[in-house]
Amino acid sequence: MEQFQSSRISFPAEDSPLLGDSPGRYPEPLNFIMTNLISWIPTGEPKLMSSGCAPEVWAARMQDTRVQKSAQLQGALVQKYFQDCRSELETGDNGSLVNLRRMMTMKYDPQGHPFLRRVVVNLPGNVKLKGLLGLKGDMKRRPLVIVRLGIFSNVEDFKPERAWLMMLFEQSPFNVLMLENMSSPDFVANNSRFSFGGYDEGIQNILVARLLQDPIEPLSQMVDSVHVFGISLGGHGVLYSSLLNKYNSPKRGPLINSFTALCPVVNLRSTMQSLTHSGVKSAFVDLWSRQRLKGLEQKIPSLVTYDNFAFLSKAISEIARTYHGGLSYVKAVNLPPGQEDSIHFWDLNDFWRHYKQVEEPVMIYATEQDPAVPYDLNAQMLLNKDLKVDSKNIRVVELPQGMHCTLPIPYDWSALTSLFQSYILSHSPNFKMTEQKLEMDLSDEEWTGFFDSGSRVKFEVEEPGKKQGFVTVGLEVENAKGKTKSMSLSLPLSQFDFRFFNKDMTGSEQEMIVRWLNQNLKVRIDQSKGKALLVASWPVAL
Asked: 365-395 burial string, b = 16+ CB within 10 Å, else e?
């Protein structure tokens, strides 16, 4: 990746001060519990679903030319999928503690992953934004997804957001740039000014998208289109950047092609008040914020003293009081008519009155149960039109299961990946894929008459060996009479959508290949040519 080194996107040495260890993600009691539970290894293993609920069927509908140009139609299609196929998409595992435990104990080592590399994005005003860049290892132009993390999250520590990196990078044909939240301890440590919220992060998203498509930037050689995906507090900046996109895109087309927000903050002030004035919940959040933001008092001296369990509320009020404006260090971002950069923090972050006739699509996923970003104060206000928005580009998908972005726990992992992937692909008009195939003739005596009344195939991916150049896939073929036969396939790594350069595969790479095949491999019996053929196929980027 050193070939993409530039003055604006840098790959610092591993011992750089910018890459120091961050404080624990949670207050010590919960941090201890989480780090001592048995890890859950997500494999993305697909379930056998009915033909009407198969994820690939609905993914294809998302990319239908009659649907893909309308966020309202795409959102309605997703909502219908969750409603019509509820019994097959929901695992029934919706307890809050189970959701939290499984979401927080996924086994994943992003810092030791050969396809992921720490970067620092240098923005105007000496703003340093730490990121994690995932590249497939080839020079193909692909959609690049900017992922903005949630409150306090940085690229050294983002337990709640690991699932989205697996889905968007490992299981999809995209390159990914994951960026820290402005409320992360590393951002506080590495920057002279501190703020949070959608106004500032929205401006950053526009600047990063420009940088990624600047012809003088080496990384731009691999960018087909840019898409933004935000979680929780990071979603607020995604929503604002969807407005800024209208006024900052070049004539040739949109700067950012699509926007996705998971359980996003829509109303910043009300959400912050809910976090800091809700009894026991606020006490927990305050302990958490004090541990995550230990260096903040150096930037805000008045934080040296505060009342019990009032650290976060005082920090928020001081940030708003001392705010200098998000454009105080850069003038190259155009604001919507009627909005001017100022020192009025809350007013700038209440940007919805300026949201008019935006074209690029915004898909919002929100759970009805959300103690962190209350549904009624945020996404529901858009859904019920309590918040007046003069634009049809936003669609809210309302989900009954899950607790604040824990969607991979109560819902089918593969189906979620397919929905996210197909939405981004539907707004990547220049990106093309092709299908790789492996066929095996099953017309010998052993299989005579076995397929006469139809059949189905299940597969299980074996983790590849460290030195092997192939993956073994175990197959079970079942005919209409319930009889089964077993066999195996060996699939070459060289034909997949990654380029492996290390002599020995790491554990991260082995797990990645299992997840990728579980999402992308299709196995079927084809009898259209008068004989039985076992066909294994998978997509790769052109």
From this structure: bbbebbebbbbebbbbbbbeeebebebebbb
- Residue 311 and residue 289: Cα distance in Å, rounded? 8
3-class DSSP state of 101: helix
* CA separation, residue 418 to residues 41, 58, 231, 414, 520 (Å): 19, 8, 18, 6, 9
Q: Which of 292, 314, 291, 288 is nearest to 301 (CA)?
A: 314
CA distances from 496 to 285, 461, 469, 484 (A): 44, 14, 11, 29
Instruction: Give the tens place of pLDDT for each residue, 153-190.
Output: 999 888 889 999 999 999 999 999 999 999 999 999 99
Paired tokens of 246: 């209208």
Kindly state the average pLDDT of the residues 436-464: 87
Closest CA to 260 of 222, 205, 219: 205
Distance, C-alpha 501 to centroid of its chain? 26
Q: Is 390 helix (H, G, I), strand (E, B) or coil?
A: strand
DSSP per-residue string spanning 328-362: SS---SPPPTT----S-HHHHH--GGG-BS--S-E
- Report phi then psi at 537, rounded to 5: -140, 155
- Phi/psi of residue 191, each to 5°? -130, 145
Which of residues 506 and 10 earns the better pLDDT score?
506
- What is the Cα gyration radius of the chain? 24
What does the block give as tokens for 148?
Answer: 């903005």
HSE-CB of 345 using CA atoms within 13 angstroms: 15
Give me the amino acid identity at 54. A
pTM for the full predicted model: 0.93
Q: Which residue has the tokens 């008519």?
A: 337
Integer CA distances (angstroms), 509 to 98, 142, 176, 242, 512, in order: 28, 20, 16, 34, 5
CB 396 within 8 A of CB 383: yes
Length of the chain: 542
Burial of residue 7, with CB atoms counted within 10 A of its CB: 0-12 exposed, 13-18 middle, 19 or more buried: exposed
pLDDT, tens digit (0-9, with 9 covering 90-100), for 52-67: 999 999 999 999 999 9
Separation of CA 496 from chain center? 22
Angle among Cα 509, 24, 195 to the nearest 5 degrees reads: 100
Give the 3-state secondary structure of residue 214.
coil
- How does DSSP classify residue 169? I
Q: What is the DSSP string of 245-300?
A: HHHH--TTS-SS-EEEEES--SSHHHHHHHHHSSTHHHHHHHHHHHHHTTTHHHHS
